[in-house]
Design brief:
Number of domains: 1
Helix content: over 70%
Largest sheet: none
Order of helices and strands: HHHHHHHHHHHHH
Shape: globular
């Protein structure tokens, strides 16, 4: 179990870096005249994810093993709706602000998991989550939170609440279904949710399509890593690690979108890292739900 938890933490760390880069690319791909709308970018991301997963299923027969079909459908629809709303927010407001509001979902998921999965966070996990969340606020909000509430902010907040339900369903599904099957359900659900809103004129061929390709590939890798990690970590512990995502998003935006890191942001980075380290060292509690012994994500390793 210790090795599984160590692996899961590494997966969430890598997923946070990839999700952060994905957000920066999605933001850039939504700027300018010949750009994607939020639903178009979401549909492109989901379509690429579906295609890559189908190719994997073809190469690795037996990887697609749905068990809890009803919960897989729930995961797909909730996750798809959360992504569409998040991409709408990225198209309307700065990437940092959108990520700040969206990434309150781990905190909400911790509350939901207490009632639905009976996963009670330890005191140390609660303290670590508060420290990491404070760091996230300092990094992305520069010591403050948004005070206005337009369509972009409302979309990001709605995405956080729906996303909290989605990650809670992932945790429940990991007792029966492997990471790639869950991701496939997420991709199909995302396509179904985003397609009705993606019928406007698409951008002409050009560099913006390479950005969409990058978003799709990064999403595939990050989602699979995150989903697999939920097999070994409870929602509260995973929530601590996921507070690194907005920090990574801000740092990627610093490199790719020309944003600056303030003194408050630097303190926030240190708090975020410190909160994660504190929760990792002292916040131990064995997960209540087992990991599938024959998880196909592990079968891909030599």
């Amino acid at each position: 179990m210790r090795r599984q938890k160590l692996r899961a933490r590494g997966e969430l760390f890598a997923a946070g870096l990839l999700f952060g880069l994905m957000a920066a690319l999605a933001r850039r791909g939504s700027l300018g005249g010949d750009a994607f709308t939020g639903p178009q970018m979401a549909f492109a991301r989901m379509a690429l994810g579906t295609g890559m997963t189908l190719a994997l299923f073809r190469l690795r027969p037996g990887t697609f093993r749905p068990v809890n079909v009803r919960l897989l459908v729930t995961r797909g629809l909730l996750g798809g709706a959360a992504v569409v709303l998040y991409f709408l927010a990225l198209a309307r407001i700065p990437a940092g602000e959108a990520t700040l509001l969206n990434n309150t979902f781990p905190v909400i998921a911790t509350v939901i998991s207490f009632w639905t999965l009976e996963e009670r966070p330890t005191l140390h996990i609660g303290v670590a989550l508060c420290i990491a969340t404070l760091g996230m606020l300092l990094v992305v909000g520069d010591g403050s939170i948004p005070t206005s509430l337009g369509w972009g902010e409302a979309a990001a907040i709605a995405s956080a609440f729906i996303g909290a339900g989605a990650v809670t369903s992932i945790r429940a599904l990991r007792a029966t279904d492997n990471a790639f099957t869950i991701f496939f359900a997420f991709s199909l659900g995302g396509m179904a949710v985003s397609l009705p809103f993606a019928w406007t004129a698409w951008p002409p061929p050009g560099p913006v399509w390479l950005l969409a390709l990058g978003v799709g590939v990064l999403s595939f890798a990050a989602q699979v890593l995150m989903t697999d990690a939920y097999g070994a970590l409870t929602v509260p512990e995973a929530a601590v690690w996921q507070q690194l995502t907005p920090v990574a998003s801000y740092l990627w935006a610093l490199l790719l979108l020309g944003e600056r890191l303030s003194a408050a942001g630097a303190v926030g980075v240190l708090l975020g890292i410190g909160g994660v380290a504190y929760g990792t060292v002292l916040g131990h509690r064995a997960p209540l739900r087992p990991v599938p012994a024959d998880d196909s994500a592990r079968s891909l390793q030599p």
